Amino acid sequence: MPTITSRKNLSIVVHVLGWIMLCIVLLLLSPLSWRMGEIELPLAFWWKQVFLVVVLVAVFYSNAQLIVPNILLKGKNYLYIMWVLIGAVLFYFAVVYFEQLIQYPRAMHQVFNPNKPFVPHKRWLPGDVFQLLLYTVSIGLSTSLALVQKWQKDEVNRQELEKQRINTELSYLKAQINPHFFFNTLNNIYSLTNLDIKKAQEALLKLSRMMRYVLYENQKETTLLSKEVDFIRDYIELMKMRFTEKVKLSIHIDEPKNNQSIAPMLILPFLENCFKHGISSQKESEIHIKLEVMGDTVFFETKNTIFPINPDSPEAKESGIGLVNTQRRLSLLYPEKHKLKFGKDESKNQYYVNLTLNLS
Question: What is the pTM of this model?
């Protein structure tokens, strides 16, 4: 936080110094060169210089804060060029209108040619070119500033994503695919070897695939949606080995048809939350899991019965952390491309999660 605050303060100082320099150029340097000849500049001249400063400030921040982020950075290059040209025309005519409003040409004529009558004539081209150059410089500097700020923001997000990926990897290896799940599954497989060798072999194969996915796919930034779906299926199948007849499980998972990519192990926290908090050894419980794929959009939802948790248990201390971390991952990986809702439905005594994810 202190670093961010110091950078923000430094940015404000740089902006203020930049505009002070512009004011010195427009309000002091050029007028001083005329004052050396003992020319008393009219009030209209100063009004025009102040007007130029105000308009250039407006152009600078409008371009940096609105036009560049919403047009240029969205890839609409030709539209951006058109806006810049329209802005140049509006800037030119705004200056012309303001000069006429304050009678700038007449006032300047009386200073430089006091013995001649004032006759309106064509505009002074070099003066117009200088003003348009000021507009161009303002556009160029503000565009550069906006691009640098975007690059800095992307770099900060990239670093944060890298930290998040490492933290996520460690937390999943340590907690999400935790030793309890691993050893319980091995014990269930061991029990199956005395009852059904084929089922035991299938369960062992599923566990092997899951651990391979955790160790290798989770190292990557993205993985195939089909692999993520296979991981989900294996996880559910292994969790079903622990169920009794009191657990009613409703599952609908689509098979991805295209080669969409998704962040690995993005959906697991929602599933783990279901099985951790939605199963009771004494009461009947229901778990509903649905995953639909429509084009590049994934619709995922879970519902589970709510059972009270022992406040002294590790689950109570970790409750909600996985969902918060996943929500953060979604905001970093898929900004403006996801909708996530989760909470309690008190009327049905259920906890629900609804996720809509655009993978395009």
Answer: 0.53
